[in-house]
Every structure is written in C-alpha cells, then in structure tokens.
Design brief:
By secondary structure, the protein is mostly helical. It has two domains: 1-110, no CATH class; 113-199, no CATH class. It is 73% helix and 0% strand. It contains eight helices and no strands.
Length: 199
C-alpha cells in the first residue's frame, strides 16, 4: 500500500523523479491551456503513446488503473449529450483522461522514496519558519499515491453493492468508502511505525 510503482521495469523508472514530476506539472498546465477537442485529442494520443512505450504489459497495467475513471466519463458524456454541448463534453473527457493517465505514468514509474525526496526538497524553505518539511512531504506523497487506490476501492465497493441490490449505490457507499479509507490509513500508519516513522 505504500507504493504503487509498477513491477514492470521500463525506461522511465531510470529518469530522475524531479524531472518526471516537473514534466507532469507543466503538462497538466498545458492541458488546461488547451480548449480545442482536436488539440486535446492529439495530447491524449501523445500520452497514450508515452504509456505504450513501456510495452504491452505496462500498457495493460496502466489502462487497468484508469478503470475508476469510467463512471466520471459516463456522467460527463451523458450530461453534455443532454445539454447538447458535445464539444464541451469531449474537451472535459479528453483533458481528464490525459491528465490522469499522465499522472499514473509518473506515479507508476517513480518510487515513493524518490517522490518524497523531491517534495521534501521543494518544501525545505519552510525550515525558515520552524516547520519540518519531511512530515509534510510524506503527507503529500501519500495523497498522490492514495488517489488511484481510493478510486479503485470505491469502484470495488460500488460493484459489491450492485451485486447485492438492484438500486443504485449513490450516497450509500460513502460510509463504507470512508471506513475503507480509515482502515487503509491505519495500515499505512502501522507500516510507517514499523519502518521508524516519518522522521
């Protein structure tokens, strides 16, 4: 649970974590600067090509990580079809898909220790104000790691609910999802304590 680094070793694993996170930040800003579905489609294809460069096993693993996005894609698509704004819907879906796929690529090819070192270096000026950057860096790194984990957990809870009830899950999965998040957090806290804590 402390790492989502892919077990499939590819060329991107050997790149510096700072370069990958910097490229991810710039790329995300660039995606939000684009407003044309055509331009965003090209950007999404470029991200797909980047992921595919890791080989078929890495591509399959990356696509599986995107499964929790489908409910959001469906909601956005239906809404924009109802409102008649197909171009706007395509823009949102392409931007969201490209951004999440790029973030997954960076996450899957960067070890938690490397990501933690980069974030801690960026937060080092906080020492001037008496704040320890390492615990904050660890918190940020774990948030980045846990987003896809929680999306996958919510999807599993939704599937389990649908298997037991004909009604839509909706708000009913909020409590199980919150309890699952607390359970995961407790396991991570135990793992951190076993490794000597965040210090």
């Amino acid at each position: 649970m402390l790492t989502l680094t892919s077990s499939v070793e590819i060329w991107a694993h050997r790149l510096p974590a700072g370069a990958k996170l910097g490229a991810l930040a710039l790329g995300t800003v660039g995606l939000f600067a684009l407003s044309s579905p055509l331009a965003l489609g090209v950007a999404a294809l470029a991200v797909l090509g980047l992921v595919a460069s890791g080989g078929p096993r890495f591509l399959r693993e990356s696509l599986l990580m995107l499964r929790p996005l489908w409910p959001f894609v469906l909601i956005v698509a239906v809404w924009h079809l109802v409102t008649g704004d197909i171009s706007g819907g395509a823009t949102v879906i392409l931007r969201m898909g490209a951004a999440v796929a790029a973030a997954n690529f960076a996450t899957m090819t960067t070890r938690l220790a490397e990501m933690l070192a980069v974030i801690e270096a960026l937060l080092s000026p906080l020492r001037l104000f008496g704040l320890a950057p390492r615990p904050m860096a660890l918190a940020l790194a774990l948030v980045i790691r846990f987003i896809p984990v929680m999306l996958t957990r919510i999807e599993a809870i939704s599937l389990a609910y649908r298997a037991r009830s004909p009604r839509r899950a909706g708000w009913r999965i909020l409590m199980p999802a919150a309890l699952a998040a607390l359970d995961d957090a407790e396991h991570v806290a135990d793992a951190l304590r076993a490794r000597g804590g965040a210090g």
